[in-house]
Amino acid sequence: MALLPVEEALARLLAGAAPLGEETIPLAQAGGRVLARPVIAHQTQPPFDASAMDGYAIRAADVLSVPVELKLIGESAAGKRFSGVVANGEAVRIFTGAPVPQGADTVLIQENTKRLAGDSIRVLQTVAQGRNIRRAGLDFAVGDVLLEPGRVLDPAALSLAAAANNAELHVVRQPKVAILATGNELVAPGENPGPDQIIASNTSGIAEIVRLNGGMSLDSGIVRDRIEDIETAIGTAIEMGADILVTSGGVSVGDHDLVHAALTRRGMKLDFWKIAMRPGKPLMSGILPGKVRVLGLPGNPVSSLICAHLFLAPLVCALSGRHYRPDIRAARLAIDLPANDSRRDHIRAEIALAENGELVATPLPLQDSSMLSALARANGLIIREPDAQPARAGAPCEVFMLR
Ligand SMILES: Nc1nc2c(c(=O)[nH]1)N[C@H]1C(S)=C(S)[C@@H](COP(=O)(O)OP(=O)(O)OC[C@H]3O[C@@H](n4cnc5c(N)ncnc54)[C@H](O)[C@@H]3O)O[C@H]1N2
Ligand code: MOO
């Protein structure tokens, strides 16, 4: 049977995947979240005409010819304004961010003045009317729509929301992604593996892919290759409120590959299982009662992470309201590549900038799907379409950047 093409599998996985509902959270917890509603200004900024410099608030007409002396009548500081009025021949000492007093129309920077004994200054340079004043509302005014729904709350967005006095924000609910590792051979990092055991590594990388794409990962731990145990763990993930259940391992055809059977017992409706992709052929997708999406990742660590980059990342983005923007670039092959078979290939490679400004992609010598050291060394994946013809060094290729 022909394997499902990668693009079709992705389209099926994402069909109907829309942002989850919304919730209201404190501003301090909103970093990286996605706005579900616009952010409106509850405050005008600046709320008053404010000085942009440390100096003197004056009337420009008084300094048309210099030098000239002005009488100092008070001080306006940020947080404490001068409440009088500046008249002809007068000046008020003023600091950055302070309200410009009535009567003054200009701020003179202090470098262009000399402080005299007694309460006066000598103005050494003329200044254009209105200089160094930030008008009230320069940045935004009450009622302005400052940020649109869909905006990821990055540093500037968070500070803007704060400046406009929004202590809480309406954001898209964060998808919860339960990650379940399956395999008799697995022990958690930090434990002492027995003679036939290895360390479970997939959960760590998958959880980071979830986080980077706006999701919250829940560690469902490690479960043995017993159908009842896998079923119980699936039930626990559902009870924890998972929107997505990611399993790793146990999706191939061996006698201990029981994930499909356990999910079926739990009522999963299978969408696809096995796709035209290397690594990652046994990828499985389906949906459990309660609309919990299931992504069954292969156990091989590199297959698991590459499938998570290509499938889990866009799914988490879709549920969290983010745009999925994979970093795909044009490069040139550093070496010849043979013809490809019927699976889309993702070749671990080092991508470097050549002197002519082009990217050059050098495949790593070993491509075994168990080799995390090679995946960590690679900064990109050369994408080879199914049945691609042999390619010569220097031929154009497409790379999926990993970092
Ligand atoms: N006869 C066939 N055998 C295999 C096929 C096939 O088509 N026919 N497909 C191969 C491919 S491709 C892959 S990928 C693997 C995937 O198999 P599973 O998803 O069932 O994974 P496991 O057998 O459970 O484990 C594979 C490998 O990965 C290690 N593993 C598993 N989980 C973890 C984890 N959480 N952290 C680190 N390492 C993990 C496990 O120990 C195995 O070494 O099947 C091929 N076989
Ligand atoms: O395609 Mo499997 O995913 O070799 O490693």
From TrEMBL:
Reaction(s) this enzyme catalyzes, per UniProt: adenylyl-molybdopterin + molybdate = Mo-molybdopterin + AMP + H(+)
Annotated EC: 2.10.1.1
Gene3D superfamilies (UniProt xref): MoaB/Mog-like domain, MoeA, C-terminal, domain IV, Molybdopterin biosynthesis moea protein, domain 2, Molybdopterin biosynthesis moea protein, domain 3
Database matches in Pfam families: MoCF_biosynth, MoeA_C, MoeA_N
SMART domains: MoCF_biosynth (SM00852)
Top-level EC class: transferase
GO molecular function, one term: molybdopterin molybdotransferase activity
Occurrences of domain MoaB/Mog (ranges): 178-318
Cofactor: Mg(2+)
Pathway the protein takes part in: Cofactor biosynthesis; molybdopterin biosynthesis
GO annotations of cellular component type: cytosol
A Gene Ontology biological process term: Mo-molybdopterin cofactor biosynthetic process
Keywords recorded for this protein, A-Z: Magnesium, Metal-binding, Molybdenum, Molybdenum cofactor biosynthesis, Transferase
Transmembrane regions: none
Job description of the protein: Catalyzes the insertion of molybdate into adenylated molybdopterin with the concomitant release of AMP.
Similarity annotation: Belongs to the MoeA family.
NCBIfam families noted in UniProt: Glp_gephyrin (NF045515)
Protein's name according to its UniProt entry: Molybdopterin molybdenumtransferase
